Amino acid sequence: MNTAIVLPLTVVFGIVAVLGFVWGAPIFGIPFLILALIAGGLWMFAARAKRATDIHTEIDDAKAQKTDFTARDQETLTR
């Protein structure tokens, strides 16, 4: 391979490896990750709870909808 490509890649991978072993990263990163997962879970749960409705309301809404069938639809409907 070309040295002009390999040398910078080696330096970048070396810097990434060194930053991965910094002592403070796991000490601070893991609790922040846990807090972010909890906050995201609560946010998703709240969003889904807000969208959820009663099944009886859904059934009534479905019964109230009027569907207009074309002549072609009338021919192909199953009885």
Structural class: mainly alpha
Residue stretches low in confidence (pLDDT < 50, at least 5 long) are none
User: Which range does the strand content fall in?
Assistant: under 5%
Computed over alpha carbons, the radius of gyration is 29 Å
The major pleated sheet works out as:
none
Number of helices: 4
* N/C terminus separation: 71 Å
H/E element sequence:
HHHH
How would you describe this protein?
The protein is mostly helical and 79 residues long. The protein has a domain at 25-53. The protein is 78% helix and 0% strand. The termini are far apart.
SSE inventory with pairings:
Layout: H1 3-20, H2 24-51, H3 55-64, H4 71-76
Give a quick summary of the entry.
With 79 residues, the chain is mainly alpha-helical. The chain is 78% helix and 0% strand.
